[in-house]
Amino acid sequence: MVRKRLDWIDQTKGIAILAVILFHFFQNYPERFDLVVALDRNGARFGYAAVDIFFVMAGFNTSYALASALKTANLTEISVDWKLWLKKRISRLYPTYFLAVVSSLMLYQWFGHLKINSIQNFILSCIGLAGYEFQSINPGFWFFTVILEAYLSIPLIFYFCRGQTVKILGLGILVAALTKALCWVLPQSSPSFWFLLQNNFLGSYFFQLCLGLYWGFVYFEKQSFRRIDWLAAIGTFVIGIVICAGMVLGKANITYMFGFDVLLSPILFLGLYALLQFLSQWRSLQWGMSFLSLLGLYSYQLYLIHQPLFVVALRRLNQLLDLPPYLHLGFSVLVVGLLLTIYGFLFVKTEVFIRKQTRKLVSSQA
């Protein structure tokens, strides 16, 4: 049995990486006039939500593939060689990451922005442990660290939950609740607060990962989402709106990551699924859907490489161009978009070449 590729999965990841790229563009844009500040502030919400979707997708793709393998082998219980499974995942993650490290260092070196303040942090970043204090090379490398934590955790999740999907979802809810509760208790001046709350620790995305693991099995069986999935997602979203409104009225500095991210993720994921299913019916939109699919296919690579390019390119354009603010912004969007397209294309081609040479070397030594 050949597992059918689901276009809406690639398109969902395409929307997510596009949201992240736009957020980081305005975050790094050097001229802080009103429009840029507004786009940065509002884009942050979409950027954070997009990262949540990536972790739902990581879980979903994993369980959907496992369900497909079970059906092919006519098995009723999950039986996986987790050691081999992890080896395959890590062998896919690390070559791209190491290439991203090298390309980021080359960009900074060529444009004179390479500064290493801590050798320890630099080494930790190079080996993929770019946590809260260790983002020495590329601020986007935290994503690799947390996605690595996610894959290392998946075998443990299935072991403790005995492969029972409802227990996996329950575990995700429990860990998310404990993580957010700790954030409420800890002072915001504490490094532990930011480690737990923000983008450096799997706890912030554990529910999203487990939700994806749960829904991957559900979708494989039904080839759609159930009424109960929609009702639960809408219910948690309404609760999240109430909590968020209360936090805003209470003048909390951070509203999204105190728990609204957990309550928003289910409806956001299902909403994107419904939207993409609807748009796929329109023949005139196929070019746009194909573009989103392409972005989704290379979303991991784009996540790892785009921020250093923004840093060096936007600074350089700001030095070279003497234009009115809005014209400067529009021109920068076009130029940086073109540069990212070229950079991404060359990066992917180099990655494919390295993987082919590695496979040849392994085959010759076998």
UniProtKB/TrEMBL annotation:
Keywords: Acyltransferase, Membrane, Transferase, Transmembrane, Transmembrane helix
Pfam (any one): Acyl_transf_3
Membrane-traversing stretches: 12-29, 49-70, 91-111, 141-161, 168-187, 193-218, 230-250, 256-275, 287-306, 326-348
Domain of life: Bacteria
InterPro entries named in the record: Acyl_transf_3_dom, Acyltransferase_3
Entry GO MF terms: acyltransferase activity
Record-linked PANTHER family: ACETYLTRANSFERASE (PTHR23028), ACYL_TRANSF_3 DOMAIN-CONTAINING PROTEIN (PTHR23028:SF53)
Protein name: Acyltransferase
Domain Acyltransferase: 7-341
